[in-house]
Write a structure and sequence with these properties.
Bound molecules: 1,6-di-O-phosphono-alpha-D-glucopyranose
Number of helices: 18
Domain Alpha-D-phosphohexomutase alpha/beta/alpha: 14-153, 185-287, 296-408
EC number: 5.4.2.2
Helix content: 25-40%
Family: Belongs to the phosphohexose mutase family.
Strand content: 25-35%
Protein name: phosphoglucomutase (alpha-D-glucose-1,6-bisphosphate-dependent)
CATH superfamily of the largest domain: Alpha-D-Glucose-1,6-Bisphosphate, subunit A, domain 3
Distance between the termini: 53 Å
Largest sheet: 7 strands, mixed
Catalytic activity: alpha-D-glucose 1-phosphate = alpha-D-glucose 6-phosphate
Number of strands: 27
Length: 544
Amino acid sequence: MDPIIIPTQPIAGQRPGTSGLRKKVKVFEQPGYLENFVQAVFDTQPELSGGTLVVGGDGRYYNKTAIQTILRMAAANGVAHVLVGCDGILSTPAASCVIRKHRTQGGLILSASHNPGGPDADFGIKFNVGAGGPAPESVTNAIYERTRTIDRYRTLDAPDVDLQQLGRQRLDEMEIEVIDPVADYAELMETLFDFNAIHQLFNSGLFRMRFDAMHAVTGPYAVEILERRLGAEPGTVLNGEPLEDFGGGHPDPNLAHTQVLVAMTEGADALDFAAASDGDGDRNMILGKAFFVTPSDSLAVLAANAHHTPGYRNGIVGIARSMPTSQAADRVAEELGIDCYETPTGWKFFGNLLDAGRITLCGEESFGTGSDHVREKDGLWAVLFWLNLLAVRQQSVAEIVRDHWRRFGRNYYTRHDYEGVDAKAAEGLMEHLRERLPGLVGKPLGGLTVAYADDFAYQDPIDGSRAERQGIRIGLADGARIIFRLSGTGTEGATLRVYLERFEADPARQGHDTQEVMAQLISIARDIAQIESRTGRREPDVIT
Ligand code: G16
C-alpha cells in the first residue's frame, strides 16, 4: 500500500509543556492538529523508521481515535513494529515499563494526566524516548520547531485496527502487537516488593484499605495486583472501571478531589490505609487513619525505609526532588551520606540522573514518586511501597510518619493554587516578582530576613544542558521557603502555584495544623506577589 502524502500547514501553539502537548479535545479535533504533531515526532526521531514504537493511553475521550490515526501514520512512516495496549490502554508508568523491557525506540503516550476528560475537556500526547522517560527538552524543542515548518504528513488509506484482540496483526508492512496492558507491569512490581508480606497483611483481618482508581487507567492494574495477586478483599478498588470522562470527575488524587475516600479514613469505622491515583496512573496520594501524607514527606519516608523492600534492599544511591518539593528528602540523603539533587519541575529532568545511576528514588510535590525501575513517576508503585512498609514495620501510617519527623524533623508544607487566572495578569505577577528579587536579599520580610531570592536555573550534571526561569524562590533565614511558579500543564488561562515550606525540629511542635503554622508565610506570599490586586483572587482554588 502506498502512503498518502497529505499537504498541511503549521498550527500555532504546539510547544510541549511540563509533560507533553496538552490541549482541549476540541483543539485536537481540528483537522491536521494531531497529525502535524505526530509527523513532527517521526520527522525528528529517525530511529523510529524500521524500529519499534509503543502506543497507549489513559482511556480518556479521543484516546481510541488518536491511536487509529497514529497507527496509520506509523505504518506510512516506516515503523516496523508497534506494541499497543489492549483497547488502547496503557498507564504512563506501564508504557515506560513496556518501552524499556522490549527495548523499543520509544513510545507515544496519550493522556492529559490529572486533567478532566470528555468531549469538552482535555487531551494530550507526549513522546517518550527509548530509555522509557519523557523526551528531554532538546527533543521536545526539536519536535516543536518541526511543527512550525511542517507542510505534509504521511498516512495510509486503511480501515481501523482491532484493538480488542490480543496478539499480532499487520497494517500494511507494519506488525502490530496488541498486548495485555497489565502483565509486564505487574511482573515488574513482583520483583520490587514483598508480595508475601503484603498478602499476609491483607489476610490478617486486622487491616482494611481502599484504592480509588477514579474511573481512570489504574482500575485494571489495581484489581489485578491488589485484589487478584495480593488477596485484598474484592471491592478494595473503588471506581475501577476506566471511563472516557472519568465518570465526570476530576482524576487528580489530592484532598480536594477525593473527598469520599478521605471521609472513609475518618470516624469510628476508619480505614487503615487509603490511596488514589490519577488519570494516567503516575500520581499517587497516600492516606492513613485520619492522616494525610504529603507527597514530599512520602518521598522522604520511602527513601529512609527503602531497605525494608526486596527491590531496594541494598540501599539507594541518591535521591532527586523537584525544586518546589519540600527539603524533607534532603535530610534523609544527608544522614544516608548520599547525594540529593534539586531539579526543575517535570519528570523529564530526572531521566539523565536515573540513566547515569546517580539516583535511585525521585519525587515531586505534585503527588509524584518513582524510582529507577521505570522512567516515569508511578502511582501504584508508591502504594505497593507503602503497603510493603506497613507489612514489615507493623505500624500505622501515622506512626511511621511521626517516627520519621522525630528522627529527621518535620518540613511543614503546603501548596496554594490559583486556577484559571488571566494569563497576562499571571505573567505580570511573575515579572513583577522577578524585578523585585535583587533588592530582597538581607531585607526583612514579615519579621524574617531574606537569605536568598532567585529565579531557579538548573544545569544538568550529565549533559550540561541548562533550564532557566524555573520558578521564583525566596528563602528566609530560618530555612523557610516561598516559591512561585506558573503551571505548565493547564489548558485554560494560567495557574499560579505558591509553595510554602517551614522546618520544625522540635517533636513537641510537630503536631500542629499546617495552614496555621503557615499563616505568616501565606500572608507574606500574598503581599509580595500582590496576588489579590493582580489576579482578583482573595483565596486559592485548591490547597494541598
Ligand atoms: C506533570 C509532570 C510533573 C510535574 C507536574 C506538575 O505531571 O510530569 O513532573 O510535577 O506535571 O506540573 P505543573 O506544576 O507545571 O502543572 P502529570 O502528572 O500532569 O504528568
